[in-house]
From TrEMBL:
Pfam families: ECH_1. This is Enoyl-CoA hydratase/carnithine racemase. SUPFAM superfamilies: ClpP/crotonase. GO terms for molecular function: catalytic activity. It comes from the Bacteria. Belongs to the enoyl-CoA hydratase/isomerase family. One of its GO terms (biological process) is isoprenoid catabolic process.
Amino acid sequence: MSLPVTETLLAEQRDHALHITLNRPQVRNAMSLQMVREIMALFDYADTDDSIRAMVLRGADSHFCAGGDIADMAAARAEAGSGNSDPFQALNREFGRMITRVNQASQTVVALLEGSVLGGGFGLACVSDVAITLSSARFGLPETGLGIPPAQIAPFVARRIGLTQARRLALLGVRCDGEEATRLGIAHECVANADDLAEKLATILAQIRRCAPQASAVTKKLLLDVESTELETLLDRAAADFSRAIQGPEGREGAQAFMQKRNPEWAQ
């Protein structure tokens, strides 16, 4: 199966990572409905290829993403009076499906944050597993200043940085730079320039390679379910996951590699 054809994204598999670039530089990579659907298609594709263990998200032309596409909003407004369906609700909910899909990806999702990281771009950053930002990046939730709520983004922002800080950012519409975003926990590390960003990405991808892919996927699901699953139920499931893993091919290979003082097969 080949990579899906995309018009708003650039996609390239390099080694064990699928690199996805939001590619609408004329609007600072604002997310159109087409882009939202193309992102989901690429994440669905990654699940068909076991060699893809990392998904790297970034934006073209030194901007990550400036939020939602105004053109889609205008089209929805024109459509609003033409029938019984609610195009605004449908448009907004589709973005929620995309951000949920990225959040639940079995691969490790790495976000490289530059320039504008606003609205939907901010939300996308908040569902990455690892986020690296330039100090000069500008983060913000401008929705309330535009008369709308950050509807699909808000739950993921609150989970990422906590309710107190999410309230402040969303209700005041304040902007912050990469250093402040790192302090808040939106990003994990802050670097000074593009060369440092590339070097940090190489280090992260090497670290991902050292981790067993199935064990990483199971671990990620366990962590994501902490807030939604009763503890005893979660621990029972975790014990079953552990048993399957230690008796499975990754567990056997990991033990053998440790005893033989070599790298396991997945780290080659």
